[in-house]
Structures are given as C-alpha cells and as structure tokens.
Amino acid sequence: MKTSIAIGLGLIASAAQAQNGPADPAVNETFKFARPAGQPDAVETSPDGQITVQVSTDNDGRAVYMIARNGKAIVAPSRLGMMFTDAPKIERGMKIESVTHAKSDTSWTQPWGEWRTIRDNHREMRVRLMESSALHRRYDVVFRVQDDGVGFRYEFPEQQAMPHANIAEELTEFNIAQGGTAWWKPAFLWNREEYLYNRTPINAVGTAATPITMKLDDGTHIAIHEAALVDYASMAVMKTEGNSFKAVLTPGSGAPKVVKTGAWQTPWRTFLIAPDAGGLYMSHLMLNLNAPNKLGDVSWVKPGKFVGVWWKMIKGEWSWARGPRHGATTANVKTYIDFASKYGIPGVLVEGWNIGWDGDWAGNGSAMQFATPAEDFDADALAKYAKAKGVSLIGHHETGGAVSHYESLFDPAFKFAADHGEHVVKTGYVADAGQIERVNADGSVSREWHEGQWMVNHHLRVLEAAAKYKVSIDSHEPVKDTGLRRTYPNWLAREGSRGMEYNAWPGKNPPEHEVNLAFTRMLEGPMDFTPGVLSLTGSDNSPIQSTIAKQLALYVVLYSPVQMAADTPENYAKYPQAFRFIADVPVDWEDSRVLNGEVGDYVTFARRDRKSRDWYVGSITDETARELTVTLDFLEPGKTYEAQVYKDGPGATYATEARHSIAFETRRVKKGDTLTLSLAPGGGQAIRLKAL
Ligand code: NOJ
Ligand code: CA
C-alpha cells in the first residue's frame, strides 16, 4: 500500500474525503493519500511547476482527480465517470492501467483576435483506466496542464463492450477545495444565457452556466468552463454540498443527453487558475485546447465595425414586420450606408429585410425566408449602392427557433448573402430554452435545447454552409463559446449573455453588468454586445445606467471582431466629439493586456491595434466611483504618443441626466508614464494612444 504522494505541500487526500466531498485544506496536510498497490503514479505539473494534477482511485475503485497550486489544494478529490441510459454506469471498480506523459511548447497565429500570437506551452498526462468488472470497459482521461490552468477530457476508444454510448449524465465532479465568492448565472431557465450575474459565496451557488468565476479564500481566481464543445451537450455545473459541484449536461429531445458511437471523446473540462482576475482573461488555455483552423485560407474572414437598422426596432419605433413602421426600407438602409461610408465603418446590418416577420415569429420561425426580401427592400439596388460606397451589408437570419426549416434553406440563404456582397450574417434563435423545433425524417417534431448536442452540431453545420460562400457568422441566442473560432475562424462572434438590447427595455442592465461580463462571459471569447448607445436612452426615453465615456470604453473592454455602433445616425450627430472614438477604435488586435481589475467591480484593458502602433485603453467601473492609476509600461520605448482621452465629465454619474457629462483631453505620453483614471459612478474612460 503506497501511502504518500507528494504534490507540493498540501494536496493529499484520503479515500474517505473522495467520498465525502470537499476536503478541508487543513485536513489535507495531515491525511496521506492511500490507494491500491500496483497502480502507477499519475501526477503531472505545469511547465512552471506551480500547478499539480493528480489522478488516483478511491476504495471503491472510483477514479478521482485533484488539482493544487503552489502546494495548496484548489480542487479536492473529485470523481470521474459516466452514466448511460442503456448500460451500467462506468464509475466503480476502475484501475489505472498506464500513465503516459508528453510536453509541448509551440506558438500559433490567430487570423484575427485579441492577440496575434498564442503560445501553447503545456504538459500532458494520459491516464488509462480499465474496469475490473466483466465488461472490462476502458477510457483514458487526458490532462493538459498549462501555467494558467488545467483541462481534461475523457477519451473512449472503440471497444466491443461499448459499441455506442447513450449518455444519461456525466459523473464528473468539481469539488472546490476552499470557500470564496462566485460570479455565476443560472442554467436551464427559459431565457437561455441571458441572465444577470449573481455574486454569492461558492457554497450558495445553484445550477450555474459556465464559465463560472470564483475568487477563493486565499485569493486564487479560478473559472470552470469547457473547451472544444463538438458533437456533445453543453455542460452546466450544479452545486451539491459545501463547495462541491457536479457536471450537468444539457438535455436532448430523447432520453440520452448525448449519443455517440465508435470511439468518442468529451469536450475539455477546464479550470483557469490565476493569482488575480486579470490572469483569468490572459489565459490561452481554451483556445489551445481547440483544433487548428479547418477552413484553410480564411483571408475572406473580415473583422470590422458595423452600424445597423436595429436600435429603433429594439426600442419599438420601427418594426421588423412589413407595414407603416417597417425599418428595413430601401430609403432607411441608404441613410445607414451613407453614414457608415462617411465614417469608414465597413458594415451595415439590416434586420427585418426578409419575408417571415409579419406573424408571431418568436418561437415559431417556420415562415422565415432567407432569400426573399420584403417588397420595400430593394436588395439588388442596395447591394450595388453599398459597394459603390465601400460598405457591405450584413445579413440577418432569424430562425425563431425553427432550425430544421433554416437548415433546409441553408444553400439559397448563403448564396443570397454572397450574391449581395454580405461577408457576415447575424443569426438568431429566439425561442425559449428547450423549444427549438427539430423536424425528424418522418416529419414528426422534436423540441431541442439551444445548447444540447443537436444544436451544438447545428452551429457547426451553419459555419460549414456559410464558409462555402465565404460568409462569416455572428450568432445570437447561441450555444456558449468554447473556443471553436480557432477551428472555424468564420465564427466571428456571438451574443450569449445580456447585451445592449436589455437597455432598450424595462429591467435594464445595472452598472455592474459589464464589469461582471469582463471576467465571466468574456472568458469564453468575443461577444456581440453592441455598445455605443451615446444617447443613453432606451424605449420611451428611459435612462440607460451608464455614462457616455463608459459606452466608449466598452469597445476596448468587451472584445469582438465585429463591433457595432448601436445608436442611430441622428443620435451620433448629437455627440460628434465622442463619436470620434467609435470611428477610430479598431476591432482587431496585436496584443491585449489587463492593467487592473476585480471581478464585478472594475477593469482596465489596454490593446494594441493590429494595423498600427497605436494602443487603446478602456476602463469601466460598477456603480462606485473610482480613481485608478495605470502605468503605460506597455508602450514602445523611445516613442511619443498622443493620448486622446475621453473621460467622465464634471458631475457625471449613471444615476442622473449628468450621465451625458463627458470631457476630452489631449496630452503627450511615453512608456513608463502614469495616468490617473477618474471613473464616475457607472462610468468609464477611453483613451487612444496615437503613436506619433
Ligand atoms: C434578439 C437579438 O439579440 C437581437 O439582436 C435581434 O435584433 C432580435 N433577436 C431579432 O432577431
Ligand atoms: Ca438576444
């Protein structure tokens, strides 16, 4: 009996702990890991030696894994396993058959993104587990350990005892070894991913969508999520007891949540682990765990800003449906094309351009046509007009959840888009969670979840259908982002949280919403939040809880390669000086840094333009005013920059009419200088650092 495995100082646990959930870190120090003889060690560390992962089996032969940082437990012994609808679960009676290790340190280039170059420096451990029952089923659990986190996945080889897998549930546990605070939104409710974030003790979380972000008692920041979600159901995490969680897969329309045949694997279950909030954002773990670009030459994928026939619809002044308030008329669209062209904005989104909106389309999109324009939208003439002005239309495919119907129209839909010079199409899936309409081969209808296996695969079918026509996708009401933009670089952005649209309606986003997003939703990847409503009013002139400077800062804080200037041309005409920043700010970056930040409180980003030597800074706060000092140590040495500052003006606050108060300032700066950013309640600051 081997009694002790050294993992730094502390991550040592007993089989009893493996059964009883989270380990008390103090107890960890005294208990030694006990496990059956004759099994090889299964320990791996990060390249810098700070993070350690260990796999073992408990008294019942249940595989458990644990993670420590600097010798202190982060994840206490947590079980692995799978439950099936038509076969015994695979959990007990497992034996570690073999353990193999590998390491790799390479770099790759993002065709577009927050960073041009991504380093992938990791250690890998493959643990082969074999069932001692008569079935003798086996699987590998593969760990990737980076300096900033850990990913693992199950890999099931093709095997006689398991010709297919009808997965009822994954038995993966995430037993957090310390208390702390969690930022999370609920999973499986009707409004999909569009909920405000809760900030609670870890032990008060319910069932949470991922990423869920936590600050542990010792200050370590972690986020649980997944990478490379392909042909599988999306995972949420459910609090069990104490600080322990278990995986919950999104249901399918049938009894198994996931169906697999032959050899199969799960997505990567990921832990970002960092000393501070900024470290979570700076991790490339999730992108590294995705497969490289599958589409070949993607020079046709074009990041860019856009305006759109949109905000007036969201506010209820115009309609998607035809009739007297129809927004997508030839004349209206021309106004937006003219505006975009004047300010060098390459895209104009048009919603409600097609037939299908007249009835009750939400949750029922079977009337939607994707190649048939409304009579008052002259698609051919507008495509020509836009082209002559150096602008492209952005298409819109709202499915209303009628997804089989949409799939049956893929080809004409994307051909129409390509024929009209559209490089990007925004898609939409407005239907309650669990109400996606899937038409089976026999004509019967099944109801699917937005993030179930069938929809996960649907989104990949969209990307492939669109790629044939060199079209890129911006999906709303999507499946969560797990880094698949690396594999499919035409997946530019998605919504997947409460965006600006909520500011048009009653029940607006509170001032802390965007700071919450920065270290939760934004850990997934680009979000089509659609910032830049400088008028700061929603429907019926209702006030939006932000300052103008904060709206500008969002272009730097909330990364997206397709970034909307969401307000109307009329409104932008009222704020020409502030609008300058929106016209200037790029959407594609050479480098990104988090200069400071606390989850849910404030954050400051600096990003360098890919096409110039200019840097941009964006800083935002919640309802609390703050003074933040930042050092410009990221600038190039020996160079002078003109800092064009857009800051909260005298008396600015999100809470009153003074939310429109903004001040402008220009000064010379160089590397090493410090700037003090004064942020108003609900405010922000945006700075262009123009290289001279
Ligand atoms: C909800 C989307 O988030 C919004 O952007 C879109 O305009 C409507 N659905 C209609 O498709
Ligand atoms: Ca939405």
Question: Overview of this structure, please?
Answer:
There is one protein chain. This protein is of the alpha+beta class and 692 residues long. Among the domains are: 43-289, Beta-galactosidase, Chain A, domain 5 (Distorted Sandwich); 305-496, TIM Barrel (Alpha-Beta Barrel), CATH 3.20.20.70. The chain is 16% helix and 35% strand. Strands 6, 7, 8, 9, 12, 13, 15, 16, 20 and 21 form a ten-stranded antiparallel sheet that branches. An eight-stranded antiparallel sheet has the order 1-2-3-4-11-18-17-14. Strand 8 and strand 9 (149-156) form a beta hairpin. Calcium ion (CA) binds at residues 194, 476-477, 495, 501.
Task: Give the SSE layout.
Elements: H1 15-20, H2 25-30, E1 43-45, E2 51-57, E3 63-69, E4 72-79, E5 82-84, E6 94-109, E7 117-131, E8 138-146, E9 149-156, E10 164-170, E11 173-176, E12 180-184, E13 198-201, E14 207-209, E15 212-216, E16 221-227, E17 235-239, E18 244-249, E19 258-261, E20 264-265, E21 268-274, H3 277-282, H4 285-288, E22 304-309, H5 311-314, H6 330-342, E23 347-350, H7 379-388, E24 392-398, H8 403-408, H9 410-419, E25 424-428, E26 436-439, E27 445-448, H10 453-468, E28 472-475, E29 491-494, H11 513-518, H12 548-557, E30 562-564, H13 569-574, H14 576-584, E31 589-598, E32 602-609, E33 615-621, E34 626-631, E35 640-648, E36 662-670, E37 674-679, E38 684-691
Parallel strand pairs: 22-23, 22-30, 23-24, 24-25, 25-28, 28-29
Antiparallel strand pairs: 1-2, 2-3, 3-4, 4-11, 5-10, 6-7, 7-8, 8-9, 9-20, 9-21, 10-19, 11-18, 12-13, 12-15, 14-17, 15-16, 16-21, 17-18, 26-27, 31-32, 32-33, 33-38, 34-37, 35-36, 35-38
The structure holds 1-deoxynojirimycin (NOJ) and calcium ion.
Domain Glycosyl-hydrolase 97 C-terminal oligomerisation: 588-690
Keywords: Signal
Domain Glycosyl-hydrolase 97 catalytic: 310-496
